[in-house]
Amino acid sequence: MNNELRAQEIREQVRAGYGAIAREGGSCCGPAASCCGPAAPDKLAERIGYSADELAVLPEGANLGLSCGNPNALAALNPGEVVLDLGSGAGFDVFIAGRKVGPTGRVIGVDMTPEMIARARRNAAAYRQQTGLDNVEFRLGEIEHLPVADNSVDVVISNCVINLSPDKPQVWREIVRVLKPGGRVAVSDLALLQPLPPAIVESVQALVGCIAGAVLVSETERMAREAGLVDIRLHCRPDYVDSMGEWQDPLYREILAHLPPGTKPGDFITSLEMTARKPAAARCCGGLA
């Protein structure tokens, strides 16, 4: 199978998996519905830095428990900014960002799964009713080919999504393309501290759960730098991955079954917090359109 066919196969697997999450209610565990119990998404979100106040005002069903960090906090958003969320799902980070940027700002969510876009748009109606703000929108598209104009976004955020892409260098080039000069990036993602055993990499469930597509921390930094980003800062949090064992996550148990004796997932996988910016001066980024 050539690389393009394999990339398309991965996209379809991810689209199908997250479509199932959108239809069935979803959970922190991947496509199986509610395997963690109904309280798990909020517990997970609080553990990785979201406040109880932020969670309390979200539209019902916006938090599907798919986060691995808090890019909103990393981004330190300001009123009036234009924000783009890559892989926006049911709108979780979009709605939090919308309150931060206020009526003069705007937040755009992009997701490749039609079911997620439909769910997010339904949630947006509740958000507008709750807040009186009309500053969020959701667009169907792939993060490798963003439906967003050049140099139009102040901040790009993403939460546990870039690792799913079969063409990560292209994602980073797209981020640079859409950012305004001087714009910034705040990403929470899963990354590898060391290579995973082949049995985990081959697991579709692990792929949908954001694990099998992850790359080494050093690779993430290299791709971002080669795309044209500067001031790259990275912070690893392997404790997040190990905490999955506290609620007996099925994905965690599958990973554990394929690890070498005496090791744990946090020895291989980390939640990676990353910030960077696009240089203020225009710069060649690989001939992007």
The rounded distance between the terminal residues' Cα atoms is 28 Å
- Report strand order across the widest sheet: 3-2-1-4-5-7-6
- Rg estimate, integer Å: 18 Å
Indicate the low-confidence ranges by residue numbers: 27-39
Q: How many extended strands?
A: 7
Mean pLDDT: 82
Strand content: 15-25%
Q: Helical content, roughly?
A: 25-40%
Form type: globular
- In DSSP terms, counting alpha (H) and pi (I) runs of 4 or more, how many helices? 12
Structural class by secondary-structure content: alpha/beta
Sheet with the most strands, sense and barrel status: 7 strands, mixed
Q: Write down the secondary-structure element order.
A: HHHHEHEHEEHEHHHEHHE
Question: What does the model show?
Answer:
- The chain is an alpha/beta fold.
- The protein has helices at 3-24, 40-47, 52-56, 71-75, 92-101, 114-131, 168-178, 198-201, 204-208, 217-227, 238-243, 250-257, and strands at residues 82-86, 106-111, 136-140, 153-159, 179-192, 230-237, 269-277.
- It has a 7-stranded mixed β-sheet, with helices on both faces.
- β2, α6 and β3 (136-140) form a beta-alpha-beta unit.
- The longest helix is centred in the first third of the chain and has 22 residues, at 3-24.
- The protein starts with a helix and ends in a 12-residue tail after the last strand.
